[in-house]
Amino acid sequence: MDGGHALQPQARTTRSTCCYCGVGCGVLVHSRSDADGREIITGVEGDPAHPANFGRLCSKGRTLAESARSLQGRILQPELRATRGEARRPVDWGLALDTVAERLARIVERHGPDAVAFYLSGQLLTEDYYVFNKLAKGLLGTANIDTNSRLCMSSAVAGYKLAFGADGPPTCYEDLEHAKTVLFAGSNAAYAHPVLFRRLEEARARDPQVRWIVADPRRTDTAAMADLHLAIQPGTDVALFNGMLHHLVWEGLLDQDFIAAHTSGFGELKQLLREYTPRMSAELCGIEVQDLVTAAEWFGRSPAALSLYCMGLNQSAHGTDKNLALIQLHLATRQLGRPGAGPFSLTGQPNAMGGREVGGMATMLAAHRELEDPAHRAEVEALWSLAPGTLPAKPGLAAVELFDALHSDKVKAVWIACTNPAHSMPDIGRVREALQRAEYVIVQECYAGTDTVPYADALLPASTWGEKDGTVTNSERRISRVRAAVAAPGQAKPDWWIAREVARRLEARLASPGAAPLFEADTPERLFDEHRALTVGRDLDIGGLDYAVLEREGPQQWPFPADAAGAQARRYVDGAFATADGRARFHPTPYRPVVEQTSARFPLRMITGRLRDQWHGMSRSGRVPALFAHSPDPALRMHPEDAARRALVAGELVRIASKRGELVLPLELSDEVASGTVFAAMHWSGQYLSSGGVNEVSLPAVDARSRQPELKHAAVRVEKAAFGWHLLAARRGDVLAIREALQPLLRECGYAGLSLHPVAARHAAADDSAGESAAAWIVLRAAAPAPMSPEWMAVLDQALMLASGPDTLEYRDARRGLLRRVAWRGAGDDSRIDGLLWSGPAPGGDAVLQAALSGRSWQGPRLAAFSTLAAAPRDPVVCSCRQVTESAIRAEIGRGADVARLQDVLGCGSVCGSCIPQLVRLARRPAIA
Length: 929
Fold this sequence. Notes:
This protein is an alpha/beta fold. The protein contains 32 helices and 34 strands. This is Molybdopterin-dependent oxidoreductase.
């Protein structure tokens, strides 16, 4: 007490960087100590001083505090198991580290270093990546270290290296404001990179002459805002770009002087392009020839043409060719090296670039060096004080090959850090088998509920965003500091620390006598200094950049050599490229069809993509109920005509099967996909589904040069999934705790899907006293051939706390197999539904669920809940920040409101702006329900 008043917890603000996509937004993290003395993150806002976002944040970034606050589901201490099949038991760090080092050392001694592999993540910090890379290549001598960046960016890397001689985009974010023509290729930037999309929207608002071209098989929100949407057939991007370049050649729209002085190989490419007339290319793509010509004209005649591309190009067995064909449009017209022009690969993860910089992949060495180059190996060996010949001389196993080798027993042990391959890898049935067969699996993770954690023999608790220090590099080559706002909970430790402690133990056992110690750096800053020393003289030279500069000057782009006045925003401005002769390279890029063609047995093309408010496998974003509001349930989207031909109805369960596996999803009808194509979001995992998600059916074919897998296209069939028993259950409460209790039940069902829902905004204030996560709902939909066992139902009852009580009404009809149960709270005019369970031979209960989720008081007798109530069509939430529904927006549009008026009256689009593209679509099509 001080003067009769309790001391208030001190609030703090920490400047850091968002942990979601590769935009690399700066954030201000607010924190304080709670009543128990634990430091908690209380809020996050955009950093106005950060040059990536200038204070903007998307819906995901705005809710980072909510994702970080609860410890439910966090791994708080190491766990080990002695033999496969036994349960893991908690241990202290000393035993965990000693055991992991001992097991790895024995495998290396028996089978050699290549019997060990590491599988990392683009969410690790650069310093984390650096230690792992040094451990694998420098200490153990294996190149079997790859990352989930292989699944998203390796074709972009290969394309840049083949064309320019070095990795890294030649562009910067300022180009978004300067571009006069923007070509989106395989990028739904409105969803995947919404903060950059806001900058593009503002630039076009300032200059209505700016034109957008979108090449995408699906009419996404990005495509709907385009001046020209090229709805190409899946996988035909190379044909499109070749056809555009053919037209540019024919019309004399090339920069011949630039081609002659600064490039090589154009003659061979020109020979190939003879075949790709606009008409033939348009037929391959399934678009109008005039649209292809228009795209070529706009691009070639533009004062500044910028292309933005992402997974739609990269996740393909022909991803390198797709990247090259697009880059070559820029080279031939000299649309690069000046403001607003250039081929810009947008990275999907916050530090995919940093991982590439430190060489944290199987096909590269530190600082963009090549493993197969003896001179490069000698340079790194000297810098790391290694004996000559220590480093591996050939590339290691890339992601798909790595898990194939684990499956075939060629690799005995795998260390997985900060990623979830049992969900994100292609053909995950085979990946699960590989993890089950492995001799030793180490999982380094912060969340216990991921699909990969059950396979861990050693589970190592890692700190996560808000608790870590280091750096990340975003899509424009800008390095930003990540700072810890709070202490890590329990025994969680930084990823670099865990890797270093194991490495030191391995070093004591495996290193040659008299060898220089490799792991003396004991802080992120010292690790960064080691990393930057390796870059000196390289294309990504950051010899002039250290933590002090980042503290003083803020985030900086590379290259930033020691003698530079500052960072370099754009590369290749002078036409000098990073090849031996300084010339960029053209490469023939013939069009090749997608690897897996449709057939009578598998007649549909399945494509995948992102939801607006979720990210990757939802281990973080899935902790926030508000982020489910826009797309609350998993679904397969199908064109209405395709559904009618198969007698399929919206909302019913369908089975999607490929040559590799199958999954069940609810059906959603949408004319955003073309006939013959179906779409499913990539995010839904075993945390929320009875299956592992869309990668049950994806194929593991890889690009020959980038070794990136084909994750975007698969041939499938879709048919009705008939089940004899259905269940709908919902509960208001601590949704993260309930989710954790329900997860073991999901796999036992023919179909099961979990989703979270916020309490209706007008009632949220009344729920604040119930605790941080109490003001939310969890919903389970399940189906099976026959009713689930009494034991299964007992676990469900315990998790939902829906057993009979004074505030619970129940109706049973054993003969018909019906069970209805509704839990209530409050009384009289304030009586509201608190939980429900509906099971029987047919789906039901949606009307009661709608009443529950609305938060409105129940009108009439409680027993009326058991009567046959008609469920109204779902009113989708468009704005997750303000929880504004589509019906409210349409009502205002009907009164003549435009987007600006919607923002003023309803507040939608006025916070993060992620919903603005959908608001524009609704305003343009007011009569379409």
